[in-house]
Design brief:
By secondary structure, the chain is of the alpha/beta class. The protein has one domain: Rossmann fold. The chain is 41% helix and 22% strand. The protein is globular and about 50 Å long.
Length: 209
Amino acid sequence: MKLVVFDFDSTLMDGETIDFLACELGFEDEVAKITTRAMAGELDFFDSLVQRVALLKGLSEAKVNEICVNLPLINGAKETISGLKEMGFRVICFSGGFRNATEPICRELGIDADFSNYLHAKDGVLTGLVGGEMMFSDSKGKMLLRMQELVGSSYDNTIVVGDGANDLSMFSYAKTKVAFCAKPILREAATHCIDNKDLTEVLDIAKRL
């Protein structure tokens, strides 16, 4: 089985989900600065995630869901996913972001499964707490190993696509490592770099697998 794993924020979706959410509360600049440092590998991913989500405390869950279903897709996302599936790839999304966003958008794109984190809410309001499958810098790598075993894929038959430091761990377990408009720390570990904000360039890479 051929497998492709995509990051979500700034890879399948054009931007960072948490930045869009923080904008509602006026914390967009503060959150964006933390996000930028975390994606560059300057901050521990877990610590940065907890800090940023804490700033979302008080935001209504309804508003979160409204924002998340209207997030902008990256150019070429739909064509890329459909093209990969036509080539026989199983397509999965790993995100250090949130299910409020990955679940509806991955369903829209036809992605086979998504793994991300959960924003805790009580009485319809975010508490500022977070939990889930993708909270640590090595989470994506560990999950990729499990997915390869589950679907019968291998190092040689796996493509991974991401843009930030928390994608490094999954780069270790795939032969084809695509840095998409990525931070320098990820570009250094990549076998392929895409510098245009056009995800369809992944299709050309996939044809060589």
